[in-house]
Design a protein that fits this description.
Blueprint (H helix, E strand, L loop, with lengths): L4 E6 L2 H11 L3 E8 L2 E7 L8 E6 L3 H12 L5 E4 L3 H8 L5 E9 L2 E7 L5 E7 L5
Parallel strand pairs: 1-4, 5-8
Antiparallel strand pairs: 2-3, 3-4, 6-7, 7-8
């Protein structure tokens, strides 16, 4: 069994696509529209055939409530691993990334949190054991 697609709710798919590609550096994988429905996914540029992240509209009241509650509690909707959190922070900040937590050393890792501008907090993480 493999994880091929996972979803994150967004309040604007076009704005989300710009953030996840232009700021985070993912690549667009799928973009299909049928009537009012749009299936939109991105993947890591480092693993373009790996797991896809669906940028799903939060037009369902339950999805919107969940998304809002997680944001208000300061909980990340997704966590992405990077080799160097400080380097990614320095790369994304000039691109307009709004960090709610700068690179911070915690037990066993370094983390940072940013607002995806579409209703979610995103955490980036580098585990100490991955550092050389």
């Amino acid at each position: 069994m493999k994880i091929k697609v996972t979803s994150i709710y967004v309040d604007d798919q076009e704005k989300a696509l710009r953030f996840y590609t232009d700021v985070l550096g993912f690549v667009k994988k799928a973009d299909f529209t049928q009537g009012p429905f749009r299936w939109l996914t991105v993947a890591s540029a480092e693993e373009p055939d790996g797991t896809q992240l669906q940028l799903a509209p939060n037009d369902n009241p339950a999805a919107r409530a969940y998304q809002q509650a997680m944001f208000e509690q300061g909980q990340p909707a997704a966590m992405f691993y990077v080799d160097d959190v400080q380097r990614e922070y320095d790369r994304m900040k000039p691109l307009g990334a709004e960090f709610t937590m700068p690179p911070t050393k915690v037990t066993g890792s370094t983390i940072a949190m940013l607002n995806d501008t579409c209703g979610n907090l995103i955490q980036i993480v580098a585990l100490d054991r991955w550092q050389s």
